[in-house]
């Protein structure tokens, strides 16, 4: 008899939880509808202050920067082994579309144990990071580090000892 009462108590608790869950789902749905409405709300600029030439000029800047960033990162990615896909930083343009305003790609910087393979890989890293027309600070740093590591490998190959 006592066991049956416990099951009835548990059953009523589960029923109340189910009702509360349904109420929360309705609230979540209303909040989602509210946020969707706010996202599609638009601002209409005053006709006397709005210039189509300015709009087009700004839009062209966004498009050109997007193209430049994508070409830059794809050049890096095609020149050496990478450990991840290209990551882009986006900004919303005046037309409401996303445009790449920055990006990065992670090179595989692991060094093989074989000195000849290591030298080839370091040369690839140096070339990949400096293959673009306008190098960023990160590009320059990677190229310098790869070049220094390559010089270190060559000096070790020639028998220099740095343990003094």
Automatic annotation (TrEMBL):
| A Pfam family annotated for this UniProt entry | SprA-related
* Highest taxon of source: Bacteria
Q: What is this protein called?
A: SprA family protein
UniProt organism field: Arcobacter ellisii
């Amino acid at each position: 008899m006592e066991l049956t009462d416990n099951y009835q108590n548990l059953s009523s608790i589960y029923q109340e939880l189910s009702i509360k869950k349904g109420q929360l789902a309705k609230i979540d749905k209303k909040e989602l509808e509210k946020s969707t409405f706010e996202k599609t709300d638009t601002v209409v600029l005053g006709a006397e202050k709005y210039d189509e030439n300015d709009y087009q000029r700004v839009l062209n800047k966004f498009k050109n920067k997007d193209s430049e960033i994508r070409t830059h990162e794809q050049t890096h990615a095609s020149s050496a082994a990478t450990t991840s896909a290209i990551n882009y930083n986006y900004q919303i343009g005046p037309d409401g579309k996303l445009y790449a305003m920055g990006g990065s790609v992670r090179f595989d910087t692991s060094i093989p144990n074989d000195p000849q393979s290591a030298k080839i890989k370091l040369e690839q890293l140096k070339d990949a990071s400096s293959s673009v027309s306008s190098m960023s600070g990160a590009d320059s740093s990677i190229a310098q580090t790869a070049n220094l590591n390559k010089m270190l490998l060559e000096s070790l190959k020639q028998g220099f000892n740095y343990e003094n």
